[in-house]
Each structure stands twice: as C-alpha cells, then as structure tokens.
C-alpha cells in the first residue's frame, strides 16, 4: 500500500494506518530532533509533540506537499521552538555582505589530506558536534536537513518554508562557519603534531 493511501486511511480514523505512519517516521523524527536539540529527553518530547500535532491536524493535510515534508516541517518547527523557549545564546553569523569576504579571505588548513586525522575519532566528532551547536538555529536547521539528513534543497525549502535560494545561502554560511571553526582546530592538531 502506498503512502498516499495510508495517509487517506489515517485521515478517516484507521488506527492501523496511523500506526504505520508512526512506525515509518518515529526514528527519523527522533533523530532529527536529537540533532537539533542535542538532548535525548527533549528529542523524545518533540517526537511526541509531532505526532500529537499530526493527530490534531491530519484532517487539514491536503497533499500539496508530500506527507514526509509536512511531518518534517512539524518536527523541525517543534525543535526550533524549544530552542527559542530555552533562550539559548548562539554565536550569530552576520548577514552583512562583508561576512562572505571575511570568511573567504581566511587561509584554511587542508586537513582532509592529513592521514593522521581520523574524521571519526571521538575528539574530532566532539569538536564537530560543538561547532554545529554554535550555529544559530536558522543555519543549524538547514545544515542538519541538507548535510546530515541528506534532504534536497527543494525538500529543505518546503520544510523550513523558505526559498530555495535562501536554503543555499544559509547552507553556504553554515558550512563556511563550520569550516572556519574546524580549520582552527585542525591547525592546532597539525602544529602540536610537529612540535612533539
């Protein structure tokens, strides 16, 4: 049975169809919320909130977007609202046109060619996670949806309700910021390797 049919049955109150939707999307929604919030309990709360919203608003789902896009938008918005409520302070990336020039004028360490760097070692993963957490929520959400979740620009645009061009701009800025942070980190690693 295809997803459209399952959604239609769920809209009519079919509990088995609703259960299929929950089983299909629970893990992905939880992982998305966990990546945005970095907190297991809050990710579980977002998962629950998302499906409560789905139950309440399923009748209004008109199929103009895919069900996947619709439910991801709900989950992303719930996650971002939690960030805003917590009033976390993130280092803001300037929207000033000079931002790009200042980032592009830096000399970046090409750590990708260093065989001593294991991208999956714990220290590196911890540094990457910390850098992602420093992104403001508008950049972090685009980065997570595009580069971690692997969604297309079009899907990301629909989920965040922004233009595709805005997705590209925010993604470029997020990547530049992360590259900047990680270049400093890998430069320190390279220097410390040769000083020893």
Q: What is the topology?
A:
Elements lengths: L2 H9 L3 H23 L2 H18 L9 H20 L11 H7 L17 H13 L2 H12 L4 H8 L3 H32 L1
Helix pairs in contact: 1-2, 2-3, 2-4, 3-4, 4-8, 6-9, 7-9, 8-9
Please, could you describe this protein's structure?
- The protein has 196 residues and is an all-alpha fold.
- It folds into 2 domains: 84 residues, Rna Polymerase Sigma Factor, Chain: A, CATH 1.10.1740.10; 98 residues, Arc Repressor Mutant, subunit A (Orthogonal Bundle).
- It is built from 9 helices and no strands.
- Helix 4 crosses helix 8 and helix 6 crosses helix 9.
- About 15% of the residues have low confidence.
The biggest sheet amounts to: none
Gyration radius over CA: 20 Å
The helix-and-strand class reads: mainly alpha
The count of domains is: 2
Shape-level CATH architecture of the largest domain: Orthogonal Bundle
Poorly predicted parts: 88-117
The CATH C-level class name of the largest domain: Mainly Alpha
Strand content: under 5%
Task: Summarize the model shown.
This protein has 196 residues and is mainly alpha-helical. The protein has helices spanning 3-11, 15-37, 40-57, 67-86, 98-104, 122-134, 137-148, 153-160, 164-195.
How would you describe this structure in keywords?
Arc Repressor Mutant, subunit A, mainly alpha, 196 residues, Rna Polymerase Sigma Factor, Chain: A, 2 domains, single chain
